[in-house]
Amino acid sequence: MTAEPTEERVTHWDRIILPDIRNFHTIDVYLANGGYKALKKALEMKPEDVTDQVKKSNLRGRGGACFPTGLKWTFMPKQTTKPKYLCVNGDESEPGTFKDREIFERNPHLLIEGIVIACYAMGITTAYLYIRGEYGKWVRMVEKALMDAYTNGFVGQNICGSGFSTNIYVHKGAGAYICGEESALMNSLEGQRGYPRVKPPFPAQNGVWGCPTTINNVETLANVPVIIDKGWEWYSKVGAAKHPGPILVGVSGHVNRPGVYEMPTGEPLLEIIYRYAGGIPGDKAIKAVIPGGSSTMILRGDQLEGIRMDAESLKAAGSSVGTAGMIVMDEDTDLIKVITRISKFYYHESCGQCTPCREGTGWLWKILKRFETGQARKTDVDLLMEIANNIEGNTICALGDAAAWPVQSMIRRFRDEFEKRVVAEVETAVA
Amino acid sequence: MFTEENLKKVEELKKRYPTTQALTLPVLWLAQEQFGYVSEETMKYVANLLHVPFGHILGVVSFYTMFHREPCGRHHLEVCTNVSCMLRGSDQIVNHLEKKLGIKMGETTKDKRWTLSEVECMGSCGSAPMFAVGEEYYENLSIDKVDQILTELK
Ligand SMILES: Cc1cc2nc3c(=O)[nH]c(=O)nc-3n(C[C@H](O)[C@H](O)[C@H](O)COP(=O)(O)O)c2cc1C
Question: What's the pTM value of the predicted model, to 2 decimals?
């Protein structure tokens, strides 16, 4: 649907982001399989040509918003007396998302290579890799890989004899979903509470410590060496035309083989559920699917036909790719329980700066608990919708939207589930 | 208060950031690793060390869920109950743990051996249900597996 009919699309290759090779996380095996070749190639190009390749590849951010990566890089000022920074977003805290963790564990050098190439393209000499605090074990894995990369001259001074130097530092978070939001991440890096900032100014003008900053997701940067190595022409032909490339899809919930699967973008959701993830236990029917992490709009199981894992297709279906963390729910799932738990999460994680989010997320959770415990009134369904509508778009950052979308979509697509839980006496008592 | 080794680490960290305030999180991590939790005394010490107001440190410590202001039990069981774990039976894991340890979520056993906490998504959705003990993730849990882990941790 998304591909031009005449254009040849790449639909199969050996896995690149998470290759099926033993000990690929070690520098020896990585090098033996062509590792850091893309970096050397990039260092022989002009920085602006590297950015141009990324732009032409049509790589879009894998952190949730699908923003074109090459375009983002061009926002960085060329002439500036200030230092420039790259923040690598490995906060990975959106429920249902567990893909960056696989990169840390199974292919950390691809990430490091991508970070150095990005730094070279934008003239950045310091990158911070922000990893969520809970991933202490993975922080150690990345630090080990980073040490090996430094020792072998791929990071640090005069990289590969090119004269270009850049440092990468791992910065560990301490438990706060909001720090994945890019401006909160910068505040957290500065040693403050993770409060999002008002935009504009945008990070490329006024980012961390008031300096030009680019923020990219871990998986996004892991795609960069692939583009340089195989060329933008090849990359742009992989999967969905407007949102190409390999993508890591995490499948969780009621499937036989939950896990992270690498695939071209644009795979049908049903294909992902049945072929990659082995179908539903007990061959039950699918009641609902959350396609891209808990904030993305929920889809009905009986309307999945034709929907694909790419930005255009999911948008048309009334949802989004988000982090491509799919949560699958079988026919016996209590969706009220699901949405109550999701709302509790956003209430817990709201940083409290903006009133609509601070108060609204708590109201949503409280009212949803009435449905869960059989105390809901008939008017509560509309009340939920009204509160969600008043949060959406009225906050500094998109956490407010992230809290509103699941509730709005759940009511829109599963209104009967709510109405079933309205208690008759309460209904009359209120009336 | 910091060990020689940690003081050396602080000096190394200073080279990584343009401000000392940026050391707040890394230094609080060092403190929590050394002392097990972040007491008021520790916060004052860190504030002095980094030349930032005590209120700043307190503000940061109270914002991030992973900094503990009270000591936990010897083993801190952090059970994820978010959607993906819930769909795969985290409720049963929670019930079993509460019954077996004789405490509720958020409590510590009298002998200070176990602390039980509910946590948000830990990024283990593909191997749910799970709990973490320190940095270790225990995944694909079943009741039997939980019993076995508890025996091993004792
Ligand atoms: C509440 C909230 C949480 C977020 N959490 C993450 C996260 O954990 N990881 C991530 O890469 N992006 C996260 N984002 C998106 C980032 O703000 C940002 O768009 C992204 O890191 C940019 O990288 P990309 O262009 O490579 O996708 C979050 C956004 C919001 C609003």
Answer: 0.97
Residue listed under structure tokens 């050397």:
A40
Q: Per the CB < 8 Å rule, is A258 touching B124?
A: no
Q: Does B135 touch chain A (CB under 8 A)?
A: yes
Cα-to-centroid distance, B112 and ligand 1 (Å): 38
- Kindly give, in sequence order, each residue whose CB lies less than 8 Å from that of residue A424, ignoring residues fewer than 6 positions away: none
CA–centroid distance, residue A179 to ligand 1 (Å):
9
- φ, ψ (nearest 5 deg) of residue B78: -110, 110
Residues of chain A contacting residue B29, judged by C-beta atoms under 8 Å apart: 133, 172, 174
CA A420/CA A371 separation, integer angstroms: 9
Q: Are A52 and A94 in contact (CB under 8 A)?
A: no
> What does the pLDDT profile of chain A (431 residues) look like in tens digits?
444 545 689 888 889 999 999 999 999 999 999 999 999 999 999 999 999 999 999 999 999 999 999 999 999 999 999 999 999 999 999 999 999 999 999 999 999 999 999 999 999 999 999 999 999 999 999 999 999 999 999 999 999 999 999 999 999 999 999 999 999 999 999 999 999 999 999 999 999 999 999 999 999 999 999 999 999 999 999 999 999 999 999 999 999 999 999 999 999 999 999 999 999 999 999 999 999 999 999 999 999 999 999 999 999 999 999 999 999 999 999 999 999 999 999 999 999 999 999 999 999 999 999 999 999 999 999 999 999 999 999 999 999 999 999 999 999 999 999 999 998 765 555 54
A407 three-state secondary structure? helix
Instruction: Give the residue ranges of DSSP H helices in A287-414.
Output: 311-316, 335-349, 355-372, 380-391, 399-413
Which residues are registered as beta bridge partners of A126? Answer: A85, A167
The residue count for chain A: 431
Nearest ligand 1 atom to the CA of A89 is 11
Q: What is the 3-state secondary structure (H, E, C) of A35-89?
A: CCHHHHHHHHCCHHHHHHHHHHHCCECCCCCCCEHHHHHHCCCCCCCCCCEEEEE
Which parts of B44-113 are beta strand (E)? Answer: 75-80
Closest CB to B59: pick one of A83, A173, A193: A193
What CATH architecture does domain B75-153 belong to?
3-Layer(aba) Sandwich (3.40)
Q: Is B140 near chain A, with CB under 8 Å?
A: no
C-alpha radius of gyration, chain B, whole number:
18
Residues of B in contact with A190 (CB under 8 A): 19, 21-22
Ligand 1 binding residues, C-beta < 6 A: A 61-65, 67, 89, 91-94, 178, 180-182, 215-217, 220, 397-399, 402
CB contact under 8 A, B24 and A135: no
User: Which residues on chain B are in Cβ contact (under 8 Å) with A276?
Assistant: none
